[in-house]
Design a protein that fits this description.
- The two termini are 25 Å apart.
- Helix content is 26%, strand content 24%.
């Protein structure tokens, strides 16, 4: 009898589009590339010596700042692949002119500019690949959604998100941070992850990084989310506002440059009977 199991592999490249391309190919039609809630879920259920805790990862999640047709500034978080669900969309940004007046390309702080059509479509739950996803208002999302799909979005008030402390904060305060509630996939998943992270580190604070208080919110823009990690969780309590980068345990980041290297996790079904992984090589 053929048995299949979902297996995860790390896909690392120095160029984000190449990393995403390989990750999507590895996942195939029956797998997926891990979003931020999925990465946090995996960490919450993994021993602390597992690599999931001991290095950084790029998530298949994004945060977009935009203005609604009614004139309200909002942040739309999408998990499971949104505007930047394809390597081609990343390449368009990378290859665009850096002129400030160019409607595509990077902002001055290396977020990705997005078009008015992309803004309109994502607000209505339409993705570039034709997929339609639910977009939940933050208040409804925080109250709890039964049976969340793998791909969905959350729309939040920009001013509310901007007021989240940027930097290191106590675990108790982080449990109520709207920014992290959206990133983690809800209040309960966030609580489970914070419990696991605090127990591992034995510390009192964790980093919560966002760009909302240092950007021009009238420029529609998108960033992808990163999850920090290093061996042993060293540096978790640094509060000098300088501990960030690939080798630092800075928590969750949504303010990094879109022009970066990437480390995705791709999950796909694998045939156990044809794999060496599960064979008993040692007799006895």
């Amino acid at each position: 009898m053929t048995e299949f199991r979902m297996e995860a592999d790390i896909i690392f490249e120095s160029h984000v589009p190449d990393a995403l391309r390989r990750a999507l190919e590895h996942a195939g039609d029956d797998g997926f590339v891990a979003s931020m809630p999925q990465l946090l879920h995996a960490r919450s259920h993994a021993p602390y010596d597992n690599i999931i805790w001991n290095t950084w990862f790029t998530s298949n999640s994004e945060e977009s700042v935009m203005t609604t047709p009614a004139g309200n500034r909002v942040v739309v978080g999408v998990h499971g692949g949104g505007i930047f669900a394809s390597p081609q969309r990343f390449e368009r940004v990378y290859r665009s002119s850096t002129a400030r007046t160019n409607p595509e390309g990077f902002t001055g702080q290396y977020a990705a500019k997005i078009s008015s059509r992309e803004v309109r479509d994502i607000l209505e739950g339409r993705l570039p690949d034709g997929t339609e996803i639910p977009i939940y208002p933050f208040r409804e999302f925080k109250a709890g959604i039964v049976d969340l799909p793998m791909r969905y979005g959350v729309i939040s008030d920009f001013e509310m998100m901007r007021q989240s402390k940027r930097g290191y904060d106590t675990f108790e305060r982080l449990r109520e941070e709207p920014n992290l509630v959206v990133r983690a996939g809800g209040v309960e998943p966030l609580g489970r992850y914070l419990d696991a992270a605090q127990k591992r580190h034995g510390t009192t604070v964790m980093g919560n990084w966002h760009p909302f208080n240092r950007i021009n919110p009238d420029q529609a823009q998108t960033r992808i989310l990163f999850l920090a990690g290093n061996r042993g969780g060293l540096g978790t309590e640094d509060d000098d506002d300088h501990l960030y980068g690939y080798d630092a345990e800075y928590g969750m980041g949504g303010d990094a440059s879109m022009h970066n290297m990437a480390r995705y996790v791709a999950i796909a079904p694998r045939n156990v009977s044809s794999s060496l992984r599960y064979l008993p090589f040692q007799p006895g």
